[in-house]
Amino acid sequence: MPFRLSKGILFLLSGPAGTGKTTLCEGMLASSSNLKRIVTATTRTPRDNEVHGRDYYFFTEEEFKDHIDKGHFYEYAMVHGRLYGTLKEEVSRHTESGFDVILNIDVQGAASFRETFRTDPKMAQFLVSIFILPPSLDELRKRLKERAQDDENEITKRLETARKEMQLWKEYDYVIPTGSREHDFQLISSIYRAEKHRVRRV
Q: How far apart are CA 130 and CA 122, in angstroms?
């Protein structure tokens, strides 16, 4: 008997810096035409090659706070002096059309999503959260050094943040103990395929 999902699934991907979340998201988006990227909002200044609506929704602080007051965000946070958030309309325009979306998000943002979706059982069944867990802080330090994006002070800060984030993996639906890029990609791909066939969503 033919079947279809009534709406798309929202996949949240969290984990400490250096676990390859961005690479995994890019790989998943390239592997499926039914997966869409979420464009988040920010108050930071666009870089030279960035375009409003493609890379971010660039708002002034006043505009961003107006969206907050009107309840337009699923989640938002202050990061390094700039506001970042996920617009409800940006998610729904894909999921209501039957597309799945994947979002690279920090643990605070993921918690906000879970809390919001928990109040509505019909919405909750379309939310899937995945945590990328590094094997150890030592391995994570090695990865952060190898990617050569941060100085030693910044690496120390990121490791302290990672220590706290790693304690929250049990809050997620799935955990992927990170290995090679191929290993991690195969696991997340398997999760995606399985979630698309859950009977409760048909």
A: 20
- 159: part of which helix (H) or strand (E)? helix 152-165
* Residue found under tokens 């690496």: 155
Distance CA 90, CA 79 (A): 20
Q: Kindly state the DSSP code that residue 173 receives in the 8-state scheme.
A: S
Whole-angstrom distance, CA of residue 7 vs CA of residue 153: 44
Instruction: Kindly report whether the global pTM for this prediction surpasses the value 0.90.
Output: no
Q: Distance between CA atoms of 147 and 153, rounded to whole angstroms?
A: 15
Q: In this structure, are strands 73-79 and 82-87 parallel, antiparallel, or unpaired? A: antiparallel
Structural domains for the chain: 10-38+98-197 (3.40.50.300)
pLDDT digits (tens, 9 = 90+) for 41-67: 999 989 888 899 988 999 999 999 999
What does the block give as tokens for 187?
């696991």
Paired strand residues for 13: 104, 130
Strand order in the sheet with 41-42: 57-58, 41-42, 82-87, 73-79
For residue 71, what are its two tokens?
């309840």
What token pair was written down for 169? 């993996």
